[in-house]
Amino acid sequence: MADGGQTVDQWDLVELAARRLARALGTGYSWHPDVREATKSGGATPLPPLSSALAISRRGQVTEGAAKSIGGSRHVRRQQEWSKSRGVVAVPSYRLDSDALAALSFAKLDGPLEAILLLYATGDVNRYWPVVKRFGLAVRPGVFGEESLLDAMERLLCFRRSAKTPLDGRAKALGIRASTYRDEVKRSGAMLESWLQRATVRYMNALFR
């Protein structure tokens, strides 16, 4: 279970949408490393869509001991045979994904929904966080509203990893009880997760309709 009681399947959908958008926008990991067996003839089994692959080749036996001198040069390279090994490797690639970009327009993600989805997908805090914060403070105004939103968003972006800022330390710096501040962050986090989930569902519906 993820924070907020959401199931793993729901988070899988969020991750799928985030990876698709990140690839379309040229950020994050736009490739999936993969290794496949190759046939003896040197052909390779097909890779999934949006992946690129290079066959691994090795220098083989010498096929010619010498070659004719070109332009009077006496230094002539030996002619060698190159053979493909039994495998291929996926390499990073970026391809325009017009469907993924168009779905953003079709989804009509109003309010903070588009900003939080793109923030989660790209990690571009400077561009998208001000929009999310503005809507968050409008919904949850308070003395420590900005801090609780920031800590909640950090934990959302660092899902399944440790956030950098301990909540107890933040509460101590703000001069409030740790339990009170943790509750504020939890409520802010539930709101942000709800926005992200709604944005994901609407985006994926637009993408695959």
Explain this structure:
The protein contains seven helices and three strands. It is α+β, with helices and mostly antiparallel strands and 209 residues long. It folds into two domains: 3-30 and 96-208, no CATH class; 35-91, no CATH class. A three-stranded antiparallel sheet has the order 1-3-2, with no helix packed on it. The radius of gyration is 26 Å and the shape is elongated. The two termini are 28 Å apart. The model is unreliable at 1-5 and 29-52 (pLDDT under 50).
Output the keywords.
209 residues, alpha+beta, 3 strands, 13% strand, elongated, disordered N terminus
Biggest beta sheet attributes: 3 strands, antiparallel
> Helical stretch count?
7
**Overall radius of gyration:** 26 Å
Structural class: alpha+beta
Task: Please specify the SSE layout and strand pairing.
Elements (H helix, E strand, L loop, with lengths): L7 H17 L10 E2 L15 E13 L14 E13 L6 H10 L5 H10 L2 H15 L5 H13 L9 H8 L3 H31 L1
Antiparallel strand pairs: 1-3, 2-3
Short overview:
The protein has a three-stranded antiparallel beta sheet with strand order 1-3-2, with no helix packed on it. Helix content is 50%, strand content 13%.
